[in-house]
Amino acid sequence: MGTTTPAAVPEPKYWHLKSVLSDALESDFEVGEILPNERDLAARFGVARATLRQALDQLELEGRLQRRRGVGTTVAPPRVGVAVGDTEPRWPGDSDEAWEPVGYVEQQPPAAVTRLLGAAADDKVHVVRRVRARHGQPVAAELVYVPAASVPGLTRIDAEGPALARAVLRELQRLELQGQERTVELGSATADDAKELDRLPGAPVLVVTARYTSGDATAAVAVGTYRADTCRLTFGEDGGLLAG
């Protein structure tokens, strides 16, 4: 069977159009601006609507466009940077206004988190749910798992819902943070992820798992799910989440 070299493969029409549209997004449109309808765009660039749709699909996949029901196709904001390099360790919720606590529950964590926490299989932990939005659109959701031993003062706090979630994070910061480890992997949005992030189930996501240590124990584990079309990995010593 013969082989085809990359140089011999012609560039698809939609791929060339994608490059042209990408340049137009930079020069002719503002972030959040609604694009003309498909008929007008196809006429403007002299292509078939099927070719245009393929190019728009690719730009949406790359995070350059956002399609919102009842609104249309808009120019997406720049991607949010997820810092994964050598950063200054800090507790989740420590002077980080980008994240908003939205819920709390006490339950058994997933098996992988249980192993990171060094907990027993039937142990329940405090679980804080946080979300991050940009330009009114959700870009990330996070679950922070905190063992009861890490927040002993929580029993004296009379609160519920988001208020209790914030209380857990405040109590966690009373500990001395001695280390933080992060891992990143590519994943697919679950049904819950999709609902939280306004994506379809199976959409690509970045899963960032952070393990926080105090003394000889794991004090907390955070599992963040980021929309792959709106986020990018950054490396360096800047720390935190960067608005790219």
Automatic annotation (TrEMBL):
A Pfam cross-reference name: GntR
InterPro entries hit by this protein: Bact_HTH_transcr_reg (IPR050679), Chorismate_lyase_/UTRA_dom_sf (IPR028978), Tscrpt_reg_HTH_GntR (IPR000524), UTRA (IPR011663), WH-like_DNA-bd_sf (IPR036388), WH_DNA-bd_sf (IPR036390)
GO molecular function terms attached to this record: DNA binding; DNA-binding transcription factor activity
Keyword entries, A-Z: DNA-binding, Transcription, Transcription regulation
GO biological process: negative regulation of DNA-templated transcription
SUPFAM superfamilies for the chain: Chorismate lyase-like, Winged helix' DNA-binding domain
Coiled coil residues, start to end: none
Domain HTH gntR-type: 11-78
Protein name, UniProt field: GntR family transcriptional regulator
Species for this entry: Streptomyces coryli
